[in-house]
């Protein structure tokens, strides 16, 4: 019976992936892709990787779907003809072929490589877990044992946001977001906003002892911000460049600041004293949550350039 | 008990496949969005059963996140995409 | 097999079948409005039955409340999205299926 479930999940996963790649209609492709994210979350749970499942559920069901739908709206607004499948030009075709073959070759090499002698990393983690300040091993790795990696990951995220703001086309007209005059929507959202914030903070707090943490909480927070924006509640904060970019680097700055505190006592960078490690990690995670949520929301916000106004013209 | 959970899961997955069929078939965007909603709540049910079957409490958190965020797609769709495809009724 | 287990299995299977009935409605009903009608009701009942079955062997009250919370949230979200889609469909004059008609194929793809 278990094999049947696994087999069905794999078939649905592969089917959805190929459907979303090969379907002609863009909207259908977007819907299949959103669905793919959902099934992927189920598969991660099935594979006993709840941390990734949580992130996938938050990002796949929330922000990715909205970004794709929004891109679709832009396409509709700018051109009346649906984009056709185009023949790839010759050099691009060969470039794509070569790079694809290269990736496959590298992967094959990586697989055929003899395995490195086994280091009992899981044992090392569980031995040191008591000193890490948290009880969930993944959080301990992300924010204590290997916090350099996480620091640089967050820096990459900030960089991505900076690139996004650079690539944005200058828009003369600010976007007019359609206000949905639906009483039920606004009544329900009064309930949902606090719930989403609460769940976000719950994931952050729970991250110390069970799957959860800054990235998942940040993705959920971003969904709340986007929801705010979608129903037409304008946020002045996002208009102001200083607040916008300040929000991006807030988490990173806090991370560096907290991480360099041990330097005062002659300890190396990013080593927390064992007794206070829990507080340090929580502080860093709080900053990261806010920044990640804000960065993901800004990605959505920055895509809002002028074309949406086309509605007035016939 | 576990085999019962498995049977339930299989039925739920069949229901999910029907939703996929409706997304493929359409014909309207609204049908596709509603089918996606169906798969969202089916996914919540599947996650809750996974939590029992695999003794994985975090699956419930995943279900909670999914339950909260599943409606975002519908709201984004109604607010952004739909209005640009057709002329609205004058009112 | 205890009475509790029997009740639980009944609830689980009934819930899953409820989901299937909702999906069947989604596939078989002729127009957008009737499909929305099928989805928003059968699904929530199905999830409710499954949640009830799972609550029966849950360890703590907090966990039971969490399951109930998830059910409530899904109910509200599905009612809200169903309402929004139907509202917008009406705004855009998507036609109702008339008696005697089968599935509408005229002016079908609106994308």
TrEMBL record, chain B:
Its main location: membrane. GO terms for cellular component: plasma membrane. The chain crosses the membrane at residues 6-24, 33-51, 63-83. It is a multi-pass membrane protein. InterPro entries: MrpF/PhaF-like. Keywords: Cell membrane, Membrane, Transmembrane, Transmembrane helix, Transport. It is found in: Cell membrane. GO terms for molecular function: sodium:proton antiporter activity. Belongs to the CPA3 antiporters (TC 2.A.63) subunit F family. This is Putative monovalent cation/H+ antiporter subunit F. It comes from Nitrincola nitratireducens.
